[in-house]
Queue: 4 jobs
Job 1
Amino acid sequence: MMLDTVAHLRQLSPWLKPGAVYVDAVAADPNDVDVEELGLLDGLHGQARHERAELVRWLLARGFGVDQIRNEFSPMLLPAIRMIGDDGTSVSAREIAESSGVSLELLQRLHRAVGLVCAEDADACLQSRVDAESVLGAARLVDIGLDPAQVVLIVRLLMDGLTGAAVTMRHAALHASLHPGATELELAQAFEVLAHDAEPLLGPMVDALLRLALRHSFETEAINAIERAAGTLPGAREVAVAFADLVGFTRLGEQMPPEDLGLLALRLAELARTVVESPVQFVKTIGDAVMLVCSDPRKLLETVLDLVDAVAADDFPRLRAGLAFGPAVNRAGDWYGSPVNVASRVTSAAPAGTVRVTEAARKAIGDPAGIEWSVAETRRLKGIRGEVLLHGARRPPAAELPPWGDESVT
């Protein structure tokens, strides 16, 4: 049935039109089905009931079972879900472990890492086959010598990143398919065609991007002589850490629709990625803030100043940034250590439109051409013991703001 559907869509996808009903040539006539007796329309009335009945007849004709339709949160997505691998069969963890040769214990750890339900009874058929088998490739990493705990961590991090990407792809698909007055059946047909066209692109896309990230990870961290001699993982490094955030973002949240607020944060992240060049690393976004790291504090400061200039030239709220320097460790793609905490606090204390730099970072940066320093001042920062000496950095010619920025906007 799956092969028939794919072949059918290959022929029809260029010509599928909203409002038309397409059924397989071998399917039963959907008009012969009494949908009212199946209990699939409960709670629906009027136009919604009519549309669901129309959708159910079409799904039944496409080979979907009554239980599948009943158990699916959004039945109109069933054809698209099938197109990306779910054939509707359920399996147990033990069945997958025995057929693949992967230990049951490792399989269940990997299942939990990707968010699948793990029953106490390993013989319970709770997962779709495609979901249960999705971690088998990762399990093979143990066979080539990787520590199982590290493999579980890798899988969890991949799933964390891919989940956000998948949600965004779903949103993009909805945007591409929705039109005023679309019925459930029309959307189901549109989603199926879109899934069919996108499915062969997914594997190569994710593969290429993962390889890109892996190559860059090799470029940005080396193992020093002491670590080679001891046979230990890379430890703490002297790095510069910077945060930059939008001033007044919380107030904007009370004035702007959530969608527009989210787009504003995304635009900041896009601008940051635009100005970042190796060896500076874009680490992550945290709400309206971006985090950057670099072993060269001078290069990081130049990048932060570039970001401040880019934001000032765009239609953005004003930006503030803080930069600190010291030992930090990279684990699972994130950074931990004193400069991370200090840089975050410095950013929160920086006036709008300014960049603040700690004393340690100021000494490490020196006096490069093209950067002006303002008179230092000491500040008490939340969560940081004692007073912290901060320097202001900017590019000449002097900005319209005083050297320490607009103190009235925080």
Job 2
Amino acid sequence: MRSWDVLIEFLRRNKIYYFSVILFFLLLFIVFAYIPFAQRKETYKQYILSELRSATGLDIDVDSSDLSIFPFPGIDLENVYIRNDNILLAVCNRIELDISWVGLLSGNIELRSVQIDGGSLRLQRKIDGTIDLIEFIKNRENNSQSEKISKIEISPEEFSTGLDVQAKDFFRIGLKNVEISNFTLWYTEESHKREYKVYFHKSKASISFYEDSLDLLFHGKIDEQPIRFESTASILDFPIKYEKIRFSAVLNVEDLSLSLLRDVFSFFPLADFSQTKFSGRIAMDKEEDSPIHFKVRSQTRNLCYKGGNPFGNVKTDVDFDLDLFGKRINFPYIEASWEGVAKVSAKGNVNWKNRTIGQFTIRSDYGDYHSILKISKLFKYESPKTKYVARTISGPPSLPGVFYFNVDLNNIYAFKHRFSSIRGDAKYIHPVLTVPSFHAYIYNGEIVGKAKIFPLQPKMEVEGEAFRLHIDKAILPYVKERIITGDLYSKFYLETMIKDRSRDTVAELLLNMKSRGTIEVLNGELLGYANFMIPVLNTLGKIISFSGIDGRQVQFSKLTSEYSIYGNRFRFTKLELNGSGLEVDARGSFGFDNTIDMILNLRLGGQVVGKALKIPILYKGTFGKTIPYIDPIWLGSVFAGSTLLAPYLIPLGGPYGGGVAGSVIGEYVRDLWEGVKGLFGGSEEEIKKQNRK
């Protein structure tokens, strides 16, 4: 005993006590475990395969295998064929299995790790819901390709929707790590005639030593599109409960083609997403007794219509919280931008406990309505027409969802107009977006009203009033020069829609526009082409003295009219103008294609020849190009009857006076018919064409 104590003290003094203990147990392991295992390597290999088949319930056929011993026992399998009841499940080039020493010495196989390198599997989903496992394997005798087909009936009723999972079910063979490299999975969806290729470059699933966390990593490609997904989940208790789960996950994609989601996008017949690229990062995490937090940072490029050219570069940042059991989604932060086209921010929430109800507050820094509408048209939905119908949950039909919006939109461009601000409230119940009131600021004035919008058609109806709009700015998008000034007041009803989605958005909206109402312009002036006094002075100025009238400008105190819009034309049914000794009534139409067809009746007051003079002025042809002129029929009647000057020339001597009037006015009438282009802006042939119209 004394000798033993001396030995222990010696070891402690030389600091090799613990090393000796470790070395002692290592020698015991080598003598009683490692050496016997190495001597009976082949026997253990067959034993491990046998136990593996027994534990998994699968038939495992291998071409060759090799048993490894250090640092952990394991087996490497080459050219592995896995079957279940003669159904070929998969073919792998290489599978490496790691086994724990404790399990091996106790006589129980406990898999620590599985590494799969190379191989492929083909799955085919039929229209009737069954799945074919199709594997093209290499024949070992003649290296030829043979096809093995097996059918499995998969019924949704066989799967439980509960969230409880028992630990013994999940870890029944003690598996802690699975790694898959260079493995290809082919999946065919026959109902949509689509095939997906999933390539596992480096993928891994591992469980912690204490079996309380799970790590997942997918690094590979889906249809040649690179994807990287990482996830960590903490499991606090068994059975697993959703409220107690803690996890985090990150999905990274770079230039992912949305053709990958062609099954979903096949329901949108107008869009072509084959050229659309998606890049971004989607992060999600969940703490104990809390909803799932999502953070999305993405960029979408090259949206496209079928047969069209790619457009758009949209950046989207979204944060939202998903509460599955509370049936609620909260959006604290939403921001979307399309540089030079739109920038929008929003926040809100949606809950669906009983009836789906959503509330959102939306603000924009700037936006182009037509470009936004162009994107929305991509998602015109068409129900899939396939024989396979997914199983639905029986129950009473639910009420349609209700969504409320409060909007504050700045710098909005729509219908060739730029609104400095639009504010209002809206409510959406499929398929109508109702705007009970809105307030818009534009051209130093205001527009108030209400509206109905049908996004899926798309169609809109607007009813409102306009106050103090600068009319020159309001009509400038439709004409090339300033023709009128003044403050515009109006009451109107307007509706328009898009029928042909292949046409330009603005042109289609104007073509299908229908409107009616009244307009009033106060304290204005007619300029340029609209100055009807120019043809009057050019034609009659040599005959009549228009004292007190300056033909260079036509000012008025009030202009009123009833109007209607249809057939791509703006029609004035009763236009009246008063001011500066002039009175005008007019009627006619102006087209959005710049064609014009109007007649103005001018009545002059003040010191002019005649107590009552009514001069008809015609605007026909192309706005701004064909010059307005006095009605030649009216001039002809003056020439024939000397209705204008004859009463005042009678004292000069009947025939003489009549001859003077006839010669002066007749000269202008003959000039008109021989070629009024010099006087009135058109040739004889052009006037004939205009009159025929």
Job 3
Amino acid sequence: MDQRRRCVEITERFAFYGISSNLVMYLTGPLREPTAAAAAAVNTWSGAASMLPLLGALLADSCLGRYRTIVLASLLYVLGLGMLTFSSVLPSKCQEAVDTGSCGPPAFQVVFFYFSLYLVAFAQGGHKPCVQAFGADQFDQNDPKERLSRSSFFNWWYFGMCGGNIFTVTILNYIQDNVGWGLGFGIPCIAMLIALAVFLLGTKTYRFYPLEDESPFTRIGKSLVALARSKRGTANSKTSNECIENEDHAEDAKEALRLFPIWATCLIYAVVFSQFSTFFTKQASTLDRRITSTLQVPPAALQSFINVSAVAFIPIYDRLIVPVIRNFSKIPSGITMLQRIGIGMVMSLLSMVVAALVEMKRLKAASDYGLIDQPDVPIPMSLWWIIPQYVLVGTGDVFTMVGLQEFFYDQVPDALRSLGLALYLSIFGVGSFISSFLVTAIDVATRKSGESWFSNNLNRGHLDYFYWLLAGLSGLELVFYVYFAKGYVYKRKENSIVR
């Protein structure tokens, strides 16, 4: 039964990254959008896709339940992907135009495309928090062996996701760039439909838990009110049962609010995370990506090195590193969740430093070979130069991404586990919005004083300045993160089965 749930999640990630990994190339290609505008659009969409799980989790925990939410979200996913496929094959006058550079797609096609794109984001909002929480629900916290297995579950869950993404950003991106966008968007639609059928076949084997009598909306509201009253020391004539209930709600609110400093000090990490699907891809598109005389690697396919790094490192970490560290730390998971997150944040900072250094070398190569004003000519610089920054992102994700998933699942009040995973995803939503704001603001400011850092001709831009800025912000964020992490007290464990 675990294979069925994992199949659904891998396929959903295959579908999502099949769209997001190459989206910036579709926007700057068939839709003819400028580089900065396309990057901002991708970040805004990614932000919405990461924030919507908050709504999906609340609906799942309050009325639908995780199973029904997964099924309904999967159906919406298939619909959105189908509409996206249709929008990409609509006829365009640009196909017959002599000067395609000055030609843009019809307004209807653009509107239909973005509507379909945000429908996919909406479906993902219901799907993403529930599948993983539903998978973790299958482990009984009363059973010591199952409880220990849950930490390993998050590692191998991420392993499965990354394994599926390798195919996405290699084969699927190649199809999109060299065969057609219609087929490139259509394959995820068909895959999602098959995965839904497989998931439904396992219905009788799943472990279900009843919904709480009190919806998360009501519980959160009561928790905040109870916390405010406890701060004011408001006296009242409530019964002892009501007082106990208020104390429970106040404790829930305190547990949730304790997470805020950790949540806030991970936002710049999320800003850095959003770069590999936008500027890393545009940066890669300018390099010599030839493998043979006839085979050229699609720019977005280089994102596979993130997943390859994660897939290669997770077994080493889970089976070799953790047991060794466990002998010294006496912690079942080897290191604490917050230590794990912090290690990944350091690697994220290093990825920005490496990206800035590589971009400086790329700009120098463009100048040395007289290619500054020839953006369509590949710079004689091998694609291998850009691989280390992808590897650092992938290895860092094994620490931070998995650590954040487990932390927000484990540390929220027991009745709000789906919401906890949605809070983890919201980090990347807010981070994407921050990235979009930064790109837009910097583009406007630098264009006024000369050439934009994000010029359509990257050879005249300065992505290196942007990467150095993010490296500096990451360092500052890390200082605050360490401060709050050192003072964090983990939630006391109780022998209760989670929803």
Job 4
Amino acid sequence: MASSALSKWLRPEVYPLFAAVGVAVGICGFQLVRNVCINPEVREDFWCLGQLCRGEKYAEHGLRKFLRNKSPEIMPAINGFFTNPK
């Protein structure tokens, strides 16, 4: 009874499509679980004070320290030419 109802609604040509979609969903699920288990941002205890300096070191890298006191202009001379005409 179940096979006749299944064949009535699903044609045999769609079974490979279901298999391919199932494999793709399985791979995505595997990657999600793998990333949750492996990434240090997920594994480490965020409330641990021993990791606080490590997080600050990661967030305050050299490029950010260098750019902190700079003006946010790509070409200051051209910007000044158009904003302050003489």
